[in-house]
Amino acid sequence: MMLNLYQLEQRIETKMQEAHIPGLALAIVHKHKLIYAKGFGVTSVEDGGLPVTPQTLFRIGSITKPMTGTAIMRLVESGKLDLDTPIKTYIDWFRLSDTEATEQVTLRMLLSHTSGLPTDGQHFGSRDPQGLKVSISEQIPEYTFIAPHNTVMSYSNPGINLAGYVAEVASGKHYADLMQELVFEPLQMQRTTFDPTIAMTYPLAQSHDLDKDGKLHVQHHYADNVAHYPSGFAISTVIDMANFAIMHMQQGTFQGQSILTSESIREMHKPQASLYTPDDNAYGLTFFLGNYKGLQQVWHNGGISTFGSHLVMLPEKGIAVIMTFNRWLPSFEAITAQIFDVLLDLPKHQTEPQIIEPDRSLWSNYCGSYLGTSSGLAKIEAVDDHLILKQNDTVIPLQAIRNDLYIGKKTHDTTLTAVGFPLSGGPTPYIYVNSFVHKRAELTTAPDPDVWKNYEGTYILEGIDTYTIRIAEEELLIASKNDTLEIVLTPVDATRFGCRWGLFEFLSNDAGKVFAIKQGTNWLFTKV
């Protein structure tokens, strides 16, 4: 079946207008060949901007991760690295905050996000090529573990940065140079780079903020931090990323040249850690995995500043969709689904999961409170012979589709929420809510709302977001400048609160004055 390009382009332009997206680029690969590439909108709303084309450079955020993974697999094939050898073997001075993990964490754990390291994203830092080594020696040892290594999948930028540094050590080359040699040049990714001073010599999209009046503004501080290059700092085009996708869908071959063996591709596309979803989502080696209407789906998304990116492949059909945008587009997955459905003549709707009778004897192990650094507070309760999820300020009745996996929907919402309970033979130490890991926690009594007056104010982390905290009707509210949305903060204890954006902790100095909030494990927003 042929794509109706006019309808597709009209839908994209409508979505861009609704979501205030200045510019977007799209590429479609079909049967391992690029069949469509087009740009929409402009690189910048200031000074007229330039029209976006398929060759316009965008920040691609975490789609950098599978590119890092590809380079590491090339080093594995050459015998310079091994996936299951402890990192300590390659870096004798290496250490983590957990002594046992220091001796046992491997590349496989880092590339599958099962090392137990937390996530972190520092958009500004050193531009010196030595910055990655400095971060590994000074910052990595300070991180507190989310979970013991090799137990759960917990997304970790620092873990991928560490893997990138191991590649530096094994190759004797700085990470950016190594990526150029092992990935970008062989795949003819001619404009892809980590260097903003190179990117600026080409048409380059700019990241945008939206003010309260609905007006777009360019962010004039361009993110750059060598320490986080491996996890999210590549700058690329949809044309270049199409070449990357074609190689992965052709079992490691690109234009007759073997970049990786088929065995390495299968290893990257093989589930390493379950994410407990109805469509069997998992994480491989730097790729998310799942199925789309019975077909294997391999993908990764990216976000940095307000840039967003999307790369999704159906390898057995040789189909891929790549998108980049310079302000986050919330409905990009629906556009991808439309393209897949038309090209493959697939049914419009996914098969609904089969509900089963739950094993209620397990519920006593499941019930309790859990904290997720990326998605806040989750409580599991058994009420009137039903299991329910209370997440932040919402209540979701749950139904079993497996003994260790339940689903539910919010009121007046068709979107499924999935809750996974890894079986442990006792009280469940971790659960997954929509693929985000939450750790069991004992909660203290919520504070008197009078204390919250100290929390009111505006908090900023440049390049990430601006949050405004206020009290209304005895509730603590948080507003995001990026999302132009205000929601309720649910108390966890005297200083910690949960919401859909994660766990927030208010920090005070010795005089008791609140000076910052910490989001998740490491993002620090300073009060202004």
Per-chain topology:
Layout lengths: L4 H15 L3 E8 L2 E9 L16 E2 L4 H14 L21 H6 L2 H5 L19 H8 L18 H15 L3 H10 L11 H4 L8 E3 L5 E3 L10 H4 L2 E2 L1 H12 L3 E2 L2 E2 L3 H7 L4 E2 L7 E2 L4 E5 L2 E10 L2 E8 L4 E7 L6 H13 L18 H4 L1 E5 L3 E8 L2 E6 L2 E9 L2 E5 L6 E5 L9 E4 L2 E5 L16 E5 L3 E8 L2 E6 L4 E7 L4 E4 L2 E7 L5 E6 L3 E5 L1
Antiparallel strand pairs: 1-2, 1-14, 3-6, 4-5, 7-8, 9-10, 10-11, 11-12, 12-13, 13-14, 15-16, 15-22, 16-17, 17-18, 18-19, 19-20, 20-21, 21-22, 23-24, 23-30, 24-25, 25-26, 26-27, 27-28, 28-29, 29-30
Task: Explain this structure.
The protein folds into three domains: 1-344, Beta-lactamase; 360-440, Lipocalin (Beta Barrel); 449-527. It is an alpha+beta fold and 528 residues long. It has an eight-stranded antiparallel β-sheet with strand order 2-1-14-13-12-11-10-9, sandwiched between helices. The model has no long low-confidence stretch (mean pLDDT 93). Helix 2 (64-77) runs parallel beside helix 6 and helix 2 packs across helix 7. It is globular and about 65 Å long.
What is the structure about, briefly put?
This protein is of the alpha+beta class.
Kindly provide the name of the CATH class of the largest domain: Alpha Beta
Order of strands in the sheet with most strands: 2-1-14-13-12-11-10-9
**Would you identify the CATH architecture of the largest domain?**
3-Layer(aba) Sandwich
Strand content: 25-35%
- State the helix count: 13
Please state the structural category.
Answer: alpha+beta
Counted beta strands: 30
- Please describe the biggest sheet, giving its number of strands, its sense, and whether it closes into a barrel: 8 strands, antiparallel
Distance separating the two termini: 56 Å
* Overall 3D form: globular
How helix-rich are the residues, as a percent range? 10-25%
CATH topology of the largest domain, which one?
A: Beta-lactamase
| Total separate domains | 3
The multimeric state of the shown protein is: single chain
Radius of gyration: 23 Å
CATH superfamily of the largest domain: DD-peptidase/beta-lactamase superfamily
User: Unreliable runs, pLDDT <50, ≥5 residues?
Assistant: none
Mean pLDDT: 93
